[in-house]
């Protein structure tokens, strides 16, 4: 034992103990981070996309026609053709006029008082600037500390399951933000992130997430922000109680 101490040195041992304390015992004085998806959680992307598609192509699509977030499955064609069509939507006036999800602004304002909020979106890098402009217009006062982009469904690599150097998974974004919770409408993203987070909210009652079976225990279904807010406040209460126990 003395040999180990003599080799490492008292300062090295003390530094190791200090690191261990900070990592595992010291109370976290920073506010916990909640990550929010954007489309169909903060904004009604699909509603605007459908309105544009019906006006442009003479279709009569409704949200009930969309059973997955692979839009080409609703209007026809291939994945690549569908992604190209969505990028044309980006250049339309409909994209600029996307409406917020009901209750989102009020819920975010309430959570901001207790938590650090970030956006983790699979949106593409080509619309990053316009995305930030929309967020600033509808969620003012710098309510979101950070906005991270996954660059899924890009024209260069339309398959969201093929991750390359230009893309980030939802899990990677949550880890980078230091999130303890995620609010997202995508079942696969929710189940992917659940093991690394305290709480996940599967948001909305959409065709692509309504019938998801076998969700992890820490994934809560919430059809609206009215339902999601109490769930997230309960998590924050639990984290604050944990903090108090550490502080003593």
Task: Explain what you see.
With 248 residues, the protein is an alpha/beta fold. The chain has 2 domains: 33-44 and 100-237, Rossmann fold (3-Layer(aba) Sandwich); 47-96, no CATH class. Helix content is 46%, strand content 12%. The chain contains 11 helices and 6 strands. The chain has a 6-stranded parallel beta sheet with strand order 3-2-1-4-5-6, with helices on both faces. Helix 8 links the parallel strand 2 (116-121) and strand 3. Helix 7 (104-112) runs parallel beside helix 11 (225-247).
Largest beta sheet: strand ordering: 3-2-1-4-5-6
User: Whole-Å distance between the termini?
Assistant: 33 Å
Could you state the CATH homologous superfamily of the largest domain? Answer: HAD superfamily/HAD-like
When the domains are counted, the total is: 2
The succession of helices and strands, N to C, reads: HHEHHHHHEHEHEHEEH
CATH topology of the largest domain: Rossmann fold
Element layout with pairings:
Elements: H1 2-8, H2 10-24, E1 33-36, H3 45-57, H4 72-75, H5 79-90, H6 93-96, H7 104-112, E2 116-121, H8 128-138, E3 146-149, H9 170-177, E4 179-184, H10 187-193, E5 199-203, E6 219-222, H11 225-247
Helix pairs in contact: 7-11
Features:
248 residues, alpha/beta, Rossmann fold, six-stranded parallel sheet, 6 strands, 46% helix, globular
Can you summarize this structure?
The protein is of the alpha/beta class and 248 residues long. 46% of the residues lie in helices and 12% in strands. It contains eleven helices and six strands.
């Amino acid at each position: 034992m003395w040999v180990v101490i003599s080799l490492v040195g008292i300062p090295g041992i003390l530094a190791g103990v200090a690191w261990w304390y900070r990592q595992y015992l010291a109370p976290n004085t920073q506010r916990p981070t909640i990550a929010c998806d954007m489309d169909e959680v903060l904004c009604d992307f699909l509603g605007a996309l459908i309105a544009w598609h019906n006006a442009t192509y003479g279709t009569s699509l409704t949200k009930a026609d969309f059973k997955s977030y692979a839009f080409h499955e609703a209007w026809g064609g291939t994945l690549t053709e569908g992604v190209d069509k969505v990028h044309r939507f980006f250049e339309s006036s409909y994209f600029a006029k996307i409406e917020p999800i009901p209750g989102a602004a009020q819920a975010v304002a309430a959570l901001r008082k207790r938590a650090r909020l970030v956006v983790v979106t699979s949106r593409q890098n080509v619309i990053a600037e316009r995305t930030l402009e929309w967020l600033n217009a509808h969620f003012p006062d710098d309510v979101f500390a950070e906005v991270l982009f996954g660059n899924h469904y890009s024209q260069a690599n339309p398959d969201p399951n093929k991750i390359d150097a230009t893309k980030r998974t939802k899990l990677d974004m949550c880890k980078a933000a230091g999130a303890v919770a995620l609010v997202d409408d995508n079942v696969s993203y929710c189940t992917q992130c659940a093991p690394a987070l305290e709480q996940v909210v599967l948001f909305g009652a959409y065709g692509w997430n309504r019938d998801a079976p076998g969700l992890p225990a820490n994934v809560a279904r919430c059809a609206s922000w009215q339902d999601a807010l109490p769930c997230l406040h309960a998590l924050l209460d639990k984290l604050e109680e944990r903090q108090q126990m550490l502080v003593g």
